[in-house]
């Protein structure tokens, strides 16, 4: 079935003689699954799964370990998980920095050169940075663009991870920074920033945040559960274009670049054999002999980056690694059922361990 779909996609895209096959499962779409549907995906480690939906966890259920973090309200939290449980209930309080709260610390994101306030070239000021910096275009994707737009208050994320202004595109940004997000961060400060030695040929990253009234849906649009419209060609490719993952959760197969979980979810191909269970049944981490690459995509180095490229210097702590660490400390629970836990106990008879009966 999947092979049939992929072959059809190949011939349609190369030869253009037929309509593109539909990767989406219509019946499944009616369930309106999102990144918070724990029958499809794992909840964040600071959430719990209750009757199929991810809900806020209470802070005491977080692991005790981990370093302190500071929130945007300059409140110190014991660790990242505790801040995220608090943010879950008080969304105005977001992550600022790993460490203690020093006065006057700020993290800022702004868009410049746009015709609308919701578009333009992205500029950031890191907590420990003195100046605003551009982001490099070459490693910039819709995943990061969605986080930037959400950070700026656009709940549906980005329309494009580009900004269509010719003069801005021709501009150079030799001192730009790279940023890598997982895609579900609520603040850009949770993403990993790094600086390469040579960014002389770079142009600055731009974004057009999603405003429905500006961009009406086209006939081939897919409507995300959050109300955003994305091109149907962006469904089932492993990339969270919707921002709520609803373009990836009802797929009978995946387009190139996506890995198909048996739960009919598409995840990015590079999440396969990365040491973290992403498919709810763990099939992305099966049959990984010699392919494990856990802990190799950290320290602010962009996923998929070729290892022999110029080294990148991490500019902040990688909170995605911290998320993974917290997740690894929490028992994996699917739909209220603990997974993979089988304990064998000795039979007890009358309060005593059973002994082998001996014939006399
Ligand atoms: Ca997608
Ligand atoms: Ca994985």
Automatic annotation (TrEMBL):
Residues 1-18 form the signal peptide. It is a single-pass membrane protein. Gene3D superfamilies: 3.30.60.30, Low-density Lipoprotein Receptor (4.10.400.10), SRCR-like domain (3.10.250.10). GO terms for cellular component: endomembrane system; extracellular region; membrane. Keywords: Disulfide bond, Glycoprotein, Hydrolase, Immunity, Membrane, Protease, Repeat, Secreted, Serine protease, Signal, Transmembrane, Transmembrane helix. GO terms for molecular function: serine-type peptidase activity. Pfam families: CFAI_FIMAC_N, Kazal_CFAI, Ldl_recept_a, SRCR. Disulfide bonds join 181-191, 224-242, 236-251, 254-266, 261-279, 273-288. CDD domains: LDLa. GO terms for biological process: immune system process; proteolysis; vesicle-mediated transport. It is found in: Endomembrane system; Membrane; Secreted. Residues 109-210 form the SRCR domain. The keyword Transcription regulation does not apply. Residues 300-311 have a biased composition (Basic and acidic residues). Transmembrane segments: none annotated. This is Complement factor I. The gene is CFI.
């Amino acid at each position: 079935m999947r092979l049939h779909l992929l072959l059809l996609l190949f011939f349609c895209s190369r030869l253009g003689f037929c309509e593109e096959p539909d990767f989406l499962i219509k019946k499944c779409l009616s369930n309106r699954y999102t990144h918070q549907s724990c029958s499809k995906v794992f909840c964040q480690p600071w959430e719990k799964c209750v009757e199929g939906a991810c809900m806020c966890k209470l802070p005491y259920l977080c692991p005790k370990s981990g370093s302190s973090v500071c929130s945007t309200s300059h409140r110190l939290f014991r660790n990242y998980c505790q801040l995220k449980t608090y943010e879950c209930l008080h969304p105005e309080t977001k992550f600022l920095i790993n460490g203690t709260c020093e006065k006057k610390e700020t993290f800022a994101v702004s868009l410049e050169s746009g015709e609308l306030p919701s578009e333009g070239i992205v500029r950031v000021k890191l907590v420990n940075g003195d100046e605003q910096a551009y982001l490099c275009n070459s490693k910039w994707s819709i995943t990061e663009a969605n986080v930037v737009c959400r950070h700026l208050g656009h709940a549906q994320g980005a329309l494009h991870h580009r900004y269509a202004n010719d003069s801005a595109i021709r501009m150079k940004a030799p001192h730009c920074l790279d940023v890598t997000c997982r895609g579900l961060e609520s603040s850009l400060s949770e993403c990993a920033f790094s600086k390469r030695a040579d960014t002389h040929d770079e142009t600055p990253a731009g974004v057009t945040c999603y405003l429905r009234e500006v961009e009406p849906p086209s006939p081939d649009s897919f409507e995300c559960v959050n109300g955003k419209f994305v091109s149907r060609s962006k469904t089932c490719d492993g990339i969270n274009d919707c921002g709520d993952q609803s373009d990836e959760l009802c797929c009978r197969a995946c387009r190139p670049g996506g890995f198909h979980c048996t739960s009919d979810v598409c995840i990015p191909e590079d999440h396969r054999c990365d040491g973290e269970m992403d498919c709810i049944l763990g099939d992305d981490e099966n049959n990984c002999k010699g392919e494990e690459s856990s802990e190799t995509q950290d320290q602010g180095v962009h996923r998929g980056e070729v290892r022999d490229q110029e080294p990148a210097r991490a500019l902040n702590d990688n909170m995605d690694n911290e998320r993974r660490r917290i997740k690894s400390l929490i028992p994996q629970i699917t739909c209220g059922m603990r997974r993979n836990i089988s304990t064998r106990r000795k039979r007890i008879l009358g309060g005593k361990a059973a002994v082998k009966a001996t014939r006399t």
